[in-house]
Amino acid sequence: MKNLDEVLEMLEKRTLQKELKEWAKKKEDDACNSIHFHGGMALRNELGLWGKNELTKWFNSMGIFHADDMSGIIFTSLYRKLNNKDRDIDGQIKIYQDHWKKMGYKDGIPK
User: Fold this and answer.
1) pLDDT of amino acid 111
2) Residue 109: inside a domain
3) Taking the model in full, what pTM does it have?
4) How far apart are CA 78 and CA 11, in angstroms?
5) Residue 57 lies in a domain
6) What is d(CA 9, CA 3) in angstroms, rounded to the nearest whole number?
C-alpha cells in the first residue's frame, strides 16, 4: 500500500458489502470507536503501521507518525467515503496533532 486511497480500496474489496453498509449506518464516532481496538490492531499489524514502509512514509509526509493515528484516519476516511462525506484529511490530521501538542509535544509530532 502506498497511500490512503489504496488502503480504502483494499478494505472495500475484501469486506462484505452488507457489513460495510451496517457499519456505515452508525454515528461516525460510534462506528470508528467500535472498530478501532480489534480491527485497528489487525490493520496496524497487517499494514505494518508500526514500521517504515511506503504507507507509513505517506502518513509521515502528512504529519502523522503514530500507528494508532494512522488507523484512526483510515477508519474515519472509510466511514466518510461510504457516507459520501468529505474526508477532511487536513481536519483529521489537526485533531491528532492537537492531541499530541496537549500531551507535551511542541510540534504535535510524537517521535
Assistant:
1) 66
2) no
3) 0.94
4) 8
5) yes
6) 10
